[in-house]
């Protein structure tokens, strides 16, 4: 997948004022990489556009203020994600 970004996150992440987040072509290589979604307590809008979910079995989005969740998949290459 050309142009993708692989996330390597710190053990603790907090974006305490982040209200909107759009990630496009981001690869989540394992379950721990999705912890990004738990450090955004005032997140209102989350868009995941054509992201890769390699070896991810469960995604938890702990955003109590979340109003809009959009997940767009790449229609041509489901097997590559």
UniProtKB/TrEMBL annotation:
One Pfam family linked to the record: LRR_2
InterPro entries named among the record's database cross-references: LRR_PRU1-like
Protein name, UniProt field: FBD-associated F-box protein
Species: Quillaja saponaria
